[in-house]
Amino acid sequence: MTTLQTEQHGFKAHSDGDWENRAPVQTRSERLKSVSLADFPEVTGREVNWKFTPVAQIKSLLGDKLIDGSQTFEISEAEGVELSTVPMDSELVGRGGIPEDQAAANAWGQVQAAQRILLTSQDHQTVIVKRSALTTEPTAAHTIIEAAPQANALVILENEGDAHLSETVEIVVGDAANLTVVSIQEWNDEAIHLAAHNATVGRDANLQHIVVSLGGKIVRVNPSIHLDAQGANGEGYGAYFADAGQHLEHQVYIDHNAPHTRSRVAYKGALQGEGAHAVWIGDVLIRRVATGTDSYEENRNLTLTEGTRTDSIPNLEIETGDIEGAGHASTTGRFDEEHIFYLQSRGISEDEARKLVVRGFLFDVIQRIGNEEIEDRLQEAIDAELKQSVLA
């Protein structure tokens, strides 16, 4: 008598070979991290963190020679602000986190030194860091923003002009400090900007991280916020407006690595024109030690015309059941016709009503900046976008 032997489905190696070693990393925290470019395999565009990015257009930033552009910004004066140059082998470098992809590793290895902005004042200070002197030559940069314990500050990074830039921004928030970091991208139409923002937040400290992406051909700003001490609070907000042929990408990572931490993530975007593409990936990890965690993330997209594309992927990984709460949401859609009808009933034309909805949709994020002059300027920039729209 012959007994039929069957193997478990999926047990055998895949016919394309090396099945075990080719399985993708499923856990966000297990991704390869290294300051050495040689440790990363060549980017093909099929990787989980590159599959939505136009890789062919950014190849020079992934592995080619880069010039050092770390000192190409101007910084405003404020009480308790110290600017210094730090060697890349200093112990002050890498505290926010180290590279998780080829672009960041390539930039890390080619800058001569990091520019460190140390904030020490306990009285609220506003610091403007303006960068507009870059060129189209492939460039690397490294900036450290550090808030000393109990410091209180708003740091605004303004990016304008030409760029072909890959950079790391490290953010270190000391115990009981309150820090808001705002990164504004208003690049020229052909600019390419890849940025890794790596942050660590201390005990009972607060970090509010805000990204506003309006200009540039390809903009990819990826914030990673590590809540490494009890009572740490991290908030990530974003507003973006993608036009025809423009690629705006934001991959957000919140790492709850201590008890009683809190996070909020809210990104909102508008898209118009053929080929406008927005990508948002939100990863939240609640580790086993992070009891009492309170977390929520959301992404909302408003499509204004046909021909646009959005990729919105929220991910939530929980290793402990002892939490306050965790959740996520993602929506992409057209105008709410009830809102339009309400405004029309008040004597506002349909076109103007649609513009008002877009302004209010994005301003919900922009008003969190806390600087009236910057908020007004960004609102004007959004109005300019809308004037060029087919809605006009």
Task: Tell me briefly what this model is.
By secondary structure, this protein is an alpha/beta fold.
Description:
It comes from Leucobacter denitrificans. This is Fe-S cluster assembly protein SufD. Belongs to the iron-sulfur cluster assembly SufBD family. One of its GO terms (biological process) is iron-sulfur cluster assembly. InterPro entries: Fe-S_cluster_assembly_SufBD (IPR055346), SUF_FeS_clus_asmbl_SufBD_core (IPR000825), SUF_FeS_clus_asmbl_SufBD_sf (IPR037284), SUF_FeS_clus_asmbl_SufD (IPR011542). By secondary structure, the protein is of the alpha/beta class. It has one domain. The protein has six helices and 19 strands. The strands form two sheets. Strands 1, 3, 4, 6, 8, 10, 12, 14, 16 and 18 form a ten-stranded mixed sheet that branches. The protein has a nine-stranded mixed sheet with strand order 2-5-7-9-11-13-15-17-19, with helices on one face. It is globular, with a radius of gyration of 22 Å. 45% of the residues are buried. The N terminus is likely disordered.
| Strand composition percent | 35-45%
Report, as a whole number of angstroms, the end-to-end distance: 80 Å
| Cα gyration radius (Å) | 22 Å
- What's the SSE pattern? HHEEEHEEEEEEEEEEEEEEEEHHH
Portion of residues in helices?
A: 10-25%
State mean pLDDT (0 to 100 scale): 90
Count of beta strands: 19
Q: What are the segments in which pLDDT stays under 50 over at least 5 consecutive residues?
A: 1-20
What coarse outline follows from CA principal-axis ratios?
A: globular
Estimated structural class = alpha/beta
> How large is the count of helical segments?
6
Family: Belongs to the iron-sulfur cluster assembly SufBD family.
InterPro entries: Fe-S_cluster_assembly_SufBD, SUF_FeS_clus_asmbl_SufBD_core, SUF_FeS_clus_asmbl_SufBD_sf, SUF_FeS_clus_asmbl_SufD
Protein name: Fe-S cluster assembly protein SufD
